[in-house]
Structures are given as structure tokens and as C-alpha cells.
Description:
Largest interface: B-C, 28 and 23 residues
Number of strands of chain A: 0
Oligomer: heterotrimer
Order of helices and strands of chain C: HHHHHHHHH
Number of strands of chain C: 0
Shape of chain C: elongated
Distance between the termini of chain C: 25 Å
Helix content of chain C: over 70%
Shape of chain A: globular
Strand content of chain A: under 5%
Radius of gyration of chain A: 21 Å
Radius of gyration of chain C: 18 Å
Largest sheet of chain A: none
Structural class of chain A: mainly alpha
Order of helices and strands of chain A: HHHHHHHH
Amino acid sequence: MSDAVINSGLAAYANPARFMRLSQTLVPFFALPAVALIAYGLWLSFTAPADYQQGETVRIMFIHVPFAWLAMMTYSIMTIAALGTLVWRHPLADVAGKAALPIGAAFTALCLITGSLWGRPTWGTYWVWDARLTSVLVLFLIYLGLIAIHRAIEDKGLAARAAAIVTLVGSINLPIIKYSVQWWNTLHQPASISSLKRLANPALPPEYLWPLFTIAIGLTLLFFALHLTAMRAEIWSRKADGLSRRMARQAG
Amino acid sequence: MFNASLSVTDLSASRGGFALFESVSFNLKRGDALRVTGPNGTGKTTLLRCLAGLILPDSGAIKISGENSLHYLGHFNAMKPQLTVAENLNFWAAFDDGKSIVSALETMNLSRLKDLPFNVLSSGQKRRVALARLLLSPRQIWLLDEPTVGLDIVSSTLVEAMFSAHLANGGNVVAATHTPLGTATWQTLELQAA
Amino acid sequence: MMAALYLRDVRLGFRSGGGAMIAVLFFMSVIIMMPIAVGPDLKLLARLGPAFLWVGALLASLLGLERLFQADREDGSLDHLRLNTGIPELALMVFVKCLAHWTVTGLPLVLAVPLFGLFLNMEPPAILAAMAALAVGTPAIAFIGAVGAAAGVTLARGGLLVAIIILPVIVPVLIFGVSAANAAVDPSQAFLPPFALLSALCLFFAVTGPFAAAVFLKGIDE
């Protein structure tokens, strides 16, 4: 990693040293509001009225849906990072793509687990192989596969490029997930918030929309805090590698 | 203290149907050393591997008396790149029923490198780690294939001292090498194409 | 000495570049492919579940076996394992390497069975039976796989040889294993007889596998 400074527009942020300084100030700026919003959102979730059909279990929706949104948002960010790696060779793109993986995998796993727990009382089963669930499970598999690629390939540059290609190919999964409830006959319910037009005339009552969006925004801020921290950790880890190589050379 | 002796009579070997060397004989007593030279492809590696018991020769006899214990150092270092130097040597120490690695690290000037992953070392440093393994457990006959490849002058001197110490202790060394190892007292065997 | 070998191989397996995650990931991929291929009939999936788990575990276990000895051969460690060791001692080393390999690839598969059983709509008794059968069957696959790995270690396409050698021998393991797992699904089948036979097979392979592998390794002429 060179320390050459590039002083033009967005590329100015490519320099790792500048990124490290910037991210250090930004992380608490994201983390603290995130915790506050999530806490408030959880409180709203528990004070919202129970659904007349599903009873108390409907509250799982307030975390299940944001987890799903975050899982897909993370993958979208990884897709942009993948383009950065392959097309623009942006030095931070490799790090951004790799750092997002465990976070995205965790959100996907949480989405699947909360959905499964919600499905048991609602549909009577923990799992069905319908289009929506299967495509989200495939998303989880893609996350795990990308993590495996980084673990298996020693050369970090090569690993990043391989992972970037797989990320781009896998991005076809995102529209499949989104439209799966429309294209196929699924057990999973259709989207209640499918477009901005729908927001003006929502299918969900406001008592449900508030906790949903509060938690969603809180989790988004949390994602940025976690992602920046993970990127910093990855940059430090690469620095440590460089240091041990230098130590070997100097020891003679 | 060892009382090693290695006697080879009329050894012949071939690889893939082609005869490599024929009727090789030599006799090493306590404290003797042999330097094996010859052009590439004449079978120096095969000779060492026959002595180590890894390859069966075509004909001839190998007689090792005294304690039948060997160290073999081939072209590869037998170290895992993902483990640190210390982890690698500790494994071989445990595997060969050897002792602590501290003095071996000191002798080979590796103490400062011991916690670094093996794969960040230069090839000369890696070779020194491979040689350090020989010091972990006492074995009377050392069979070495190009032991000093990649080593600088300082390290080569270290290695020569290591060999002298082993020979003074009564052991044997058989080394295939193009570099002179400093001691004129070594026997030499020049392999020629059969 | 053997403890050191076991610990080293396990450590290598779980570090970057080792096979730990790949086997479970492959297992998961197979388990996902099956219901997509078969269709969403949940009752059918539950009935076929044990069979899918077994085939998935078998294929995933085969994945890493080729590398059992090849990594050691490539960096020269295999020479030292063969040096000065008689066949019984070499067999013990192979046994330890198989145990390490199972800890890294087989054990995670067994631990993943409850989750994958859920995907296949299996009931808890069936999942437990499958877990028990695989816990005994996956080591058997490792022990007998070592024979193929040892036979093919000097060959370039060794992996194929592993599969060809061990698949015929694995057939009884598969038969008893699926039978034991099915016992919880199908009340007309008993669990203990096939499970006992499976355990006996595992013990038998635990001895014969490493010995046969040691014979192959000792006979390497290079």
C-alpha cells in the first residue's frame, strides 16, 4: 500500500492515511445515533398494538424486515465496491468489499432466523422452499462463498478480484429476491412497502411504519459504523503483514 | 558422542528406466564426511535418498552401524508457510522427540525471526530454519541435499561451523553441494553419468 | 509425537487456506440443490432427508481427501514422516492425520446436520438419528479415503483416484448409514442393528485403512 497522496476530488479519499483519519471521526458519529435509534425503535415495537390476526408475534416483523433490507443493501454496496476493484482499481475498494462480508452475512442470517421463528406460529413450519426464502438462502450462501474465497486465496489482490467477479455475477440474485413474491406463487407475503408511491398510501398503519423505519434507519447507521470499523481493521491487518515482512528483511 | 559409520558398496540406481550411477562405493568412519559433486542430473539427490531409505537402489549394499539414526534435508524445507518459525520448529522438536528450540534458534541466528510467519522469510532465512531442525534432535548421520542454497556468506560460515561440531562429535555428514564447505578433510565423490 | 502431529494438522486446517469452511459450504450447497431439484413437497423432502444428508456429507468429505498427503509431499514433510518409520508406526501417523482431517472437515458437517435437517423438513428424532449415523460414518469415510489419497499422492489427478477407490468400499457405509437415519422416520425400521454394523465398519476401517495407506506410502519410490 503506497502512501502517495492523490489530491483530486473523490480520489483524495483513496489514500489510506486520509481514510483512516476520516473514518476515525466518523465512526462514533454513526454509532451513537444508531444505538439511540435502535433502542427507540425497539421501544416503539413493543408499544405498538398487536395484530388482530397474528397477535404478539407480528413484532418480529420490526426487525425481520429491516434485516432483509440491510442484507440487500450491504450486497449492493459490495457490488459497487466490486466495480471499484475491477474497473477503477480503487485501492480502498478491495478493503470495502472484503470488510462488508461478515456484516452482510450476519444480517442475512438474522433475517432468515427471525423469519423462520416468525413463520412457525404463522404458517406452522420453520422453513419452506418457496422462491423468496430460497433466494435469500442463496444470498447467504453467496456471502459465505465470498468469505471462503478470501480465506482460500493467499494473494490479497487476487482474492479481491476473484471475489469481485463472483459478487457481480451474484448480484443477479438481488432483483430475484425483490421480485420473487411477484413472479412466483409464494407462501411469503407480498411486499407491503414496494415503492415510494406506496408510501403515500401505505398498506401498513402508521403505528407499524414508525418502528419499522426507525429500526431500519438505526440499522443502516449501525452498518456504516461497523463497515468503517471493519475496513480500518483490515487496513491495520495489511499494515501488520507489511511490518512483519520488513522485520524479516531487516533481521538478515 | 556418536560412533557412526556408513559403508556403501557397489551402489547403482536408475530413475524412470535410465541408469543414473553405477558401482558407487565409499566408506565413512567416525567423524568422516563426504562431499558429493557432479553435473546436474547425475543422481546426487537419488544417491542421498537411497541412503535415507526413501528410494530403493537397483543393486548394492548400504551398511550403517552404530545407532541407526538419520537426518535428511532435501531440496524442500519441510516447513508449513502458514505457521510461525517457532511453531514449525516446535512441531519438529515434538515429532522427533527433541529438546527445546531455543538453542537451535540461537545457533542459526534466528531468534529475532521466531514469531514471524514462515512465508515472509527470505529463501536464505527459510533454509536456515530447515537447517535448525537438524539441531533439535541428535542423529548420527546427516544426509544433506544442497544445504547452503540461498545462504549468504555469514550464514554459510555458521553452517560450516555446525557441520564441524557434528563431525567432532563423532557423526557423519554426506552433502551434495557445488560450494566448497571449507574443510579440506572431507572425502569427495564425483558422480558421472553412467 | 502423535499429539503434535494432530494439533499441527488441525491448526493448519482451520487457518486461512485450510479446508474447514469449504466442506460445510459444499454440504450446504448440495442440501440446497436437492429441494430445488425435487420440488417443494415437504413430506417427500422429509422422507428423502436422510439420504440427501448422506450423499451431501459423502461428497463434501471426498473434497479434501486428495490433499491429505499432497500438502506434506509438496513441502518435503512427507519424507520425514516416511524416514526411519516402519509400517505400524506409519499407520499410526496416518490414523492421526485422518483424525485431524475429520476434525476439520467431518465434524463441522455433523454439527451442521440439525440446521440442514430443518431445511429438509425433518423431525427432531430423524435429525438426531442422522447426526449419530454421520458422526460414525464420516470418520469411516476419512479412514478409507486415506487409502485412495496415499495411492494417488504421486499422481497429478489423484483426486479422481480417491473417489474411484473408495466409492465401492463406501457403499456398505452408505447403506447402513441411511438405514439407521431412516429408522427415526420409518417406524418399521430399527435403529440399532444398522447403527451397530455402521460402527463396526468404522472400527474396521480405522485399522485397515491406515495400514493400507501406510503400505502405499512406504512403497513410494521417489
